[in-house]
């Protein structure tokens, strides 16, 4: 156990309750978030609140697309007996072990293990605990991680199944090796922030005119990298990519995202046809579980200068390990609401660093931008020390629902100073959008705007 820290010690850190709310927003009405596979998402989340006797609470979430959010919330409830009544400070000082307890619950693990609904539920709980920890220390999560003693940080990770790539001792060493210049990088984050790209220009449900309008808007905001959804129809993709290049020119970067729609060979053939538009990467060309398929695609597209990006639906650190080992991706897209929350995501950063792959986080949805920019900022201050060809995704959705949302200026996420993980929803957001009894949902049901399908 690590040296006690006054902020996270005390009997009053007993967790008195843990709740999980089903929160949904009607984004399908505007086609926001639509892609080749997810044609009508209603951006949603399971919102977990962990209360302590001290009165400080932690909020965390996992992202969902509408239906099924209640199933994840139910799973949080099934795990809550492992959280309620525990001392939060003791959890933090043995966080790796606690994470293993949650993910290895002897009966619930049968409906995972470490994947799918059970792992989403773990992520929401773990993210709420990090918000709590940061609030207790009076720091934003990026700063909490940046200031943390390397041994303590590494002790939060469960290294089971990944020590063939990185061990705890190596992870500590990587942090020590990259400590030089940390203060300067921190200062720079506070001054200019961390670069982002936008996906707001290219949802598949958007019309050509709307795409042009959005491109102009984001260019005016200083963006230099743009992502568009592909995979529904090759002729339509060619037209849309053409529009993008007409609007953004050839000096700015273009990325394309197929959201898992293709078979391996189909992905290669399709992308060869889009190669003339010089996309930096093809994202999620095929099944998120197909490590060797991604490797094949990656090899075939390399002569065209197209890289492969994936990770937003990667199940866990073991899958990430294989993708990284197999040269199956060149851009590693961690997602803050998936795998087992912050602790497991940190392990992916260490593996990516060791194997020399860039991390470019997935974001958007509800709260994903809020959370993940903290992690990428820590990576910059403490591990990779580099922003080269690295961005955090940015989508302008649902930020207004949060008390301390992200701040984006000149296409950069600004470093926040408010304590926590930026995950606390406004009380009115809960009053309006908790499903199905929130006031906005009741109104939409009554007016026939939405049919309740669960
Ligand atoms: Mg994507």
From TrEMBL:
PROSITE patterns: MR_MLE_2. SMART domains: MR_MLE. Residues 208-304 form the Mandelate racemase/muconate lactonizing enzyme C-terminal domain. It is an enzyme of class 4 (lyase). It holds the Pfam family MR_MLE_C. One of its GO terms (molecular function) is L-fuconate dehydratase activity. Its EC number is 4.2.1.68. It catalyses: L-fuconate = 2-dehydro-3-deoxy-L-fuconate + H2O. The keyword Transport does not apply. Belongs to the mandelate racemase/muconate lactonizing enzyme family. ENOSF1 subfamily. This is Mitochondrial enolase superfamily member 1. It comes from Pseudolycoriella hygida.
């Amino acid at each position: 156990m690590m040296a006690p820290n006054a902020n996270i010690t005390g009997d009053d850190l007993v967790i008195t309750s843990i709740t999980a709310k089903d929160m949904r927003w009607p984004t399908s009405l505007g086609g926001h978030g639509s892609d080749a596979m997810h044609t009508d998402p209603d951006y949603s989340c399971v919102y977990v609140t962990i209360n302590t006797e001290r009165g400080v609470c932690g909020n965390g979430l996992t992202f969902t697309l509408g239906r099924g959010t209640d199933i994840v919330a139910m799973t949080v409830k099934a795990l809550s007996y492992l959280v309620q009544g525990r001392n939060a400070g003791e959890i933090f000082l043995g966080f790796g072990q606690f994470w293993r307890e949650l993910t290895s619950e002897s009966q619930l693990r049968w409906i995972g293990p470490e994947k799918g609904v059970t792992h989403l539920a773990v992520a929401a709980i773990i993210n709420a605990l990090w918000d709590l920890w940061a609030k207790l220390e009076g720091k934003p999560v990026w700063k909490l991680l940046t200031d943390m003693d390397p041994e303590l940080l590494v002790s939060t990770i469960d290294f089971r199944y990944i020590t063939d790539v990185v061990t705890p001792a190596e992870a500590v060493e990587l942090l020590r090796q990259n400590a030089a210049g940390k203060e300067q990088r921190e200062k720079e984050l506070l001054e200019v922030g961390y670069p982002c790209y936008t996906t707001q220009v290219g949802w598949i449900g958007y019309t050509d005119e709307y795409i042009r309008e959005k491109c102009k808007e984001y260019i005016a905001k200083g963006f230099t990298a743009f992502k568009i959804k592909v995979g529904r129809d090759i002729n339509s993709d060619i037209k849309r990519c053409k529009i993008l290049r007409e609007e953004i020119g050839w000096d700015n970067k273009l990325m394309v995202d197929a959201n898992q729609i293709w078979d391996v060979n189909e992905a290669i053939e399709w992308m060869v046809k889009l190669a003339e538009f010089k996309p930096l990467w093809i994202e999620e060309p095929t099944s998120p579980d197909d490590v060797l398929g991604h490797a094949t695609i990656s090899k075939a597209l390399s002569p065209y200068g197209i890289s492969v990006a994936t990770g937003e639906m990667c199940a866990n650190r073991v899958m990430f390990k294989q993708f990284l080992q197999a040269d199956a991706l060149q851009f590693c897209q961690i997602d803050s609401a998936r795998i087992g929350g912050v602790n497991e995501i940190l392990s992916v950063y260490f593996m990516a660093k060791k194997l020399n792959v860039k991390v470019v986080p997935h974001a958007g949805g509800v709260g994903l931008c809020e959370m993940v920019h903290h992690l990428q900022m820590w990576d910059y201050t403490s591990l990779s020390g580099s922003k080269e060809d690295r961005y955090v995704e940015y989508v302008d959705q649902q930020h207004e629902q949060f008390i301390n949302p992200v701040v984006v200026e000149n296409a950069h996420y600004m470093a926040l100073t408010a304590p926590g993980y930026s995950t606390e929803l406004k009380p009115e957001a809960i009053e309006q959008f908790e499903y199905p009894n929130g006031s906005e949902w009741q109104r939409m049901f009554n007016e026939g705007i939405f049919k309740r399908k669960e």
